[in-house]
Circularly permuted ATP-grasp type 2 domain-containing protein (Chelatococcus reniformis), 472 residues
Amino acid sequence: MALRAFDEMSSFGDRCRPAYERLQAWLGQVPRELLAQRRTEAELLFRRMGITFAVYGDTEAEERIIPFDIVPRILAAEEWTLLAAGLEQRVRALNAFLKDIYGPREIIRAGVVPEAMILGNPFFKPEMTQFRPAGDVYIHIAGIDVVRVDADTFYVLEDNARAPSGVSYMLENREAMMRLFPELFGRHRVAPVDGYTDELLASLRSVAPRAAGEPTVVLMTPGPYNSAYYEHSFLADRLGVELVEGRDLFVKDDCVFMRTTEGPKRVDVIYRRIDDEFLDPLAFRPDSMLGVPGLMLAYQAGNVTLANAVGTGIADDKAIYSYMPEILTFYLGEEPMLKNVPTWRCREPQALAYVLEHLDELVVKEVHGSGGYGMLIGPHADQATRDTFAEKLKHAPDHFIAQPTLALSTSPTLVESGIAPRHVDLRPFVLTGADRVRIVPGGLTRVALKEGSLVVNSSQGGGTKDTWVLGD
């Protein structure tokens, strides 16, 4: 039986919600042919700007344009205020958790999170033990995936604490909408997002290890063959910082330097888009050609800041996610403002038994999975697929969690047949510096373009929308 979804424009099929009234009126007036024409213009614009992503293993289409829906997703000011407060609370708890597990480990001694789930986690990095990064900030840039189920309830679907991607699409989506639909903007007071890179640069500079002078910040990329390289070059350009690869940097006397035409220049902050394992061949994978030999020594000496910190991947773990309500209460002494999706940890025998009995109702995910891969959506899978997944669960239950199939909210979307509801999620970006937390209003809305699909990932055929937060 299909789940009944909350529609953000019309609730559960009732009259139009206030935030969408002007958009609904506009959609009723604009000719369908014009919408189709603007959609074509948007695609040409994105191709001209080179906004692409790569799908690993796809030999037929190495570079793709992410489908862009020209109908914006709208949040009222009061909705965003509550959401932003919950996001800040959650990221404060995540930073406290990382500081603790790499320090005194009080949460383990208190029995809140099992020791094996932390110390045995592949993303836990012993090299970070007893090391405190500048400002005690571990997660400088967080992407928190949020879904909505009714007018008042948002759930956090997952926490992205290593190197969350997608902010370039948030910024480019806004620019495209302003070019294509200035008359629609004229009907709304939309909070701007173009200050994101200024806020990001301020956050990064605030955690520089040296107090004297203006810090030198660089963005470190694995190179042009990485799936997110467009975003790396886009952000470096917007930040006004150098885009570097590992070969552009070297370490001398436990300090990091950048090779320039004017000679070596010391680097203070590295916004790195390279996974931990490839950062330093002397500390992690010796076969890495992407990293900088000696980088970890410079980092541990306090002479350079890495954003995000090494070892933050454990906060991405979906099994750790299941403990977030307890983690938040343990460190902050507060009740979570944003709910977790109810989660069964398949490593626990009772939970595993329940999941195996209810596979046709649940979503099963790999604890280290991403991009919509390695996932079972029980209600949409056939019996053979469910049986195969059951064997995986029995063989390696520690690798999986399960959640109920949520009726993700829908937002009006332009499809071939006209305007129709499609399921969406939201990835707001939370910036944490040594001085304060910064959140630009909105985020990246991802949309499942296939009718009935709940999978919004671009690698699985999803698209994106501009997200409008209305002014007061």
